[in-house]
Amino acid sequence: MRILVFGDSIVYGSWAAEHGWVDLLKREAHKRTIESEGRTKLQVLNLGISSDSSTKILKRMPNEIESRSSASWPFLFVFSFGTNDQRTTDGQVETPIEQFEANVTAIICEARLHTDKILFVGTPPMTQPVAVLKNQEYSDARLKEYEERLVAILKAESIPFVSIRPVFEQAGFGSLYAYDHAHPNDAGHKLIAATVLPELDKLLGSSVAR
Question: Residue 73 has what DSSP assignment?
């Protein structure tokens, strides 16, 4: 199974000093492949790009998928985005929520051309109601609204969703974020990986899951 993980800087792993959550899943995949002596082969490819939005992910999906397509490696797709969609520059939201919904639907349609194994992962909450980074404003209330719209689409499409917000809220913000209070630190990334892995295993099935 070849697992492609699309997303933004949190998917990429900024600012984990050791391993981002996708890289932690990659290490687990390698471990399972080795322990099975190759009977179970799992690859995890990190396709996270800093500052990416749903629009940018949708645009690059066909080429990213085509370049990694192989008859011997069936796909599983993981998506995690939304933080950059809801940010504003000079009061202008990057992705209007109606366009965000259309992008999500189009991303699902594109993914289903290649596999029925699709998983969406939510984003961590912001540590404050509003934050300004690089002259762009990020709103936690708006982030929640975008995620609610995303979840509604996924429910209608019967696609699993892993919610990260409540896990972070229960664990407490103080020890989970890097210096910018926006990106998870190593502890935060480990928590995301631990939350995602059981849901990923459900999609992988008993034949390849531990």
Answer: B
Look up residue 52 and give its amino acid.
D
Angle, helix 186-204 to helix 21-35, in steps of 10 degrees: 50
Count of other CB atoms within 10 angstroms of residue 25: 22
In angstroms, the Cα distances linking 41 to 36, 85, 165, 192, 201 are 8, 34, 31, 23, 14
Size of the chain in residues? 210
| E strand spans, the chain | 2-7, 43-48, 75-80, 88-89, 92-93, 118-121, 130-133, 136-139, 161-162
CA angle 6, 12, 13 (to 5 degrees): 140
- For domain 2-204, give the CATH number: 3.40.50.1110
**58-70 pLDDT tens trace:** 999 999 999 999 9
88-89 sheet: strands from edge to edge: 92-93, 88-89, 136-139, 130-133
- The domain ranges of the chain are 2-204
Does position 131 have pLDDT exceeding 70, yes or no? yes
